[in-house]
Amino acid sequence: MALQPVERGRGRAAGRRCDPLPASLDLLEVDSSDRLYQIAFYTRTVGDAGKILLVVGLALAVIGAVFVVGSRLGLGRLPGDISVTSGNFSFFFPVVTCLVVSVVLTIVINVILRLWR
Protein backbone atom coordinates (compact mmCIF):
# COMPACT_ATOMS: atom_id res chain seq x y z
CA MET A 1 0.00 0.00 0.00
CA ALA A 2 1.26 3.46 -0.83
CA LEU A 3 1.64 6.18 1.78
CA GLN A 4 -1.21 8.68 1.89
CA PRO A 5 -1.00 12.08 3.60
CA VAL A 6 -3.63 12.70 6.27
CA GLU A 7 -4.59 15.81 8.16
CA ARG A 8 -2.80 16.47 11.45
CA GLY A 9 -4.94 15.79 14.50
CA ARG A 10 -7.19 13.13 12.95
CA GLY A 11 -7.08 9.87 14.87
CA ARG A 12 -8.83 7.85 12.16
CA ALA A 13 -8.73 8.31 8.43
CA ALA A 14 -11.39 6.79 6.16
CA GLY A 15 -12.53 4.47 8.95
CA ARG A 16 -9.20 2.63 9.18
CA ARG A 17 -7.13 2.17 12.28
CA CYS A 18 -4.06 4.44 12.54
CA ASP A 19 -1.20 2.92 14.51
CA PRO A 20 0.97 5.30 16.55
CA LEU A 21 4.07 6.34 14.63
CA PRO A 22 7.17 8.33 15.52
CA ALA A 23 6.88 12.12 15.21
CA SER A 24 8.73 12.08 11.88
CA LEU A 25 6.02 9.89 10.34
CA ASP A 26 2.91 11.22 12.06
CA LEU A 27 1.59 12.96 8.92
CA LEU A 28 1.40 9.66 7.04
CA GLU A 29 -1.17 6.93 7.31
CA VAL A 30 0.59 3.61 7.01
CA ASP A 31 -0.72 0.09 6.77
CA SER A 32 1.01 -2.24 9.25
CA SER A 33 2.15 -4.50 6.38
CA ASP A 34 4.02 -1.58 4.78
CA ARG A 35 7.82 -1.91 4.85
CA LEU A 36 8.38 1.69 5.97
CA TYR A 37 6.14 1.16 8.99
CA GLN A 38 8.01 -2.00 9.91
CA ILE A 39 11.36 -0.18 9.73
CA ALA A 40 10.02 2.73 11.83
CA PHE A 41 8.61 0.33 14.45
CA TYR A 42 11.86 -1.66 14.58
CA THR A 43 13.95 1.50 14.98
CA ARG A 44 11.71 2.75 17.79
CA THR A 45 11.83 -0.53 19.74
CA VAL A 46 15.60 -0.92 19.31
CA GLY A 47 16.09 2.65 20.53
CA ASP A 48 13.96 1.91 23.60
CA ALA A 49 15.98 -1.23 24.32
CA GLY A 50 19.19 0.80 24.08
CA LYS A 51 17.87 3.32 26.60
CA ILE A 52 16.85 0.52 28.98
CA LEU A 53 20.29 -1.10 28.73
CA LEU A 54 21.95 2.25 29.40
CA VAL A 55 19.86 2.83 32.54
CA VAL A 56 20.47 -0.73 33.79
CA GLY A 57 24.22 -0.35 33.21
CA LEU A 58 24.33 2.95 35.09
CA ALA A 59 22.31 1.44 37.95
CA LEU A 60 24.77 -1.48 38.20
CA ALA A 61 27.70 0.94 38.25
CA VAL A 62 26.09 2.93 41.07
CA ILE A 63 25.36 -0.25 43.05
CA GLY A 64 28.97 -1.38 42.59
CA ALA A 65 30.26 1.98 43.81
CA VAL A 66 27.99 1.75 46.87
CA PHE A 67 29.41 -1.71 47.68
CA VAL A 68 32.99 -0.46 47.40
CA VAL A 69 32.35 2.62 49.54
CA GLY A 70 30.19 0.67 51.98
CA SER A 71 32.88 -1.93 52.63
CA ARG A 72 35.38 0.84 53.38
CA LEU A 73 32.91 2.42 55.82
CA GLY A 74 32.42 -0.84 57.70
CA LEU A 75 29.11 -2.07 56.32
CA GLY A 76 29.03 -5.83 56.77
CA ARG A 77 31.03 -5.70 60.02
CA LEU A 78 28.57 -3.85 62.25
CA PRO A 79 27.84 -5.01 65.82
CA GLY A 80 24.93 -7.42 65.61
CA ASP A 81 26.01 -9.08 62.36
CA ILE A 82 26.13 -12.85 62.86
CA SER A 83 29.40 -14.60 62.04
CA VAL A 84 30.11 -18.27 62.86
CA THR A 85 33.37 -20.00 61.94
CA SER A 86 34.13 -23.64 62.70
CA GLY A 87 36.92 -25.55 60.96
CA ASN A 88 36.27 -25.49 57.24
CA PHE A 89 32.80 -24.00 57.70
CA SER A 90 31.95 -20.32 57.99
CA PHE A 91 28.56 -18.60 58.08
CA PHE A 92 27.93 -14.88 57.93
CA PHE A 93 24.58 -13.10 58.08
CA PRO A 94 24.67 -9.29 58.27
CA VAL A 95 21.45 -8.67 60.25
CA VAL A 96 22.20 -5.10 61.33
CA THR A 97 23.70 -4.18 57.97
CA CYS A 98 20.48 -5.36 56.27
CA LEU A 99 18.42 -3.21 58.64
CA VAL A 100 20.59 -0.13 58.03
CA VAL A 101 20.50 -0.57 54.25
CA SER A 102 16.71 -1.10 54.37
CA VAL A 103 16.12 2.09 56.36
CA VAL A 104 18.41 4.16 54.11
CA LEU A 105 16.80 2.84 50.91
CA THR A 106 13.30 3.44 52.31
CA ILE A 107 14.16 7.07 53.08
CA VAL A 108 15.84 7.64 49.70
CA ILE A 109 12.96 6.09 47.73
CA ASN A 110 10.35 8.07 49.69
CA VAL A 111 12.22 11.33 49.05
CA ILE A 112 12.52 10.54 45.32
CA LEU A 113 8.82 9.65 45.05
CA ARG A 114 7.75 12.84 46.85
CA LEU A 115 9.94 14.96 44.56
CA TRP A 116 8.64 13.08 41.51
CA ARG A 117 5.00 14.12 42.16
What does this structure look like?
The protein has a domain at 74-117. It is 52% helix and 12% strand. It has 2 helices and 4 strands. It has helices at residues 35-73, 95-116; strands at 4-5, 28-29, 82-86, 89-93. A two-stranded antiparallel ribbon has the order 1-2. It has a two-stranded antiparallel sheet with strand order 3-4. The longest helix is centred in the middle third of the chain and has 39 residues, at 35-73.
Spans of 5+ residues with little confidence (pLDDT < 50)? Answer: 8-14
The neighbouring-strand order within the major sheet is: 1-2
Q: What is the typical, i.e. mean, pLDDT?
A: 76
- Described by the principal axes of the CA atoms, the overall outline is elongated
Structural class: mainly alpha
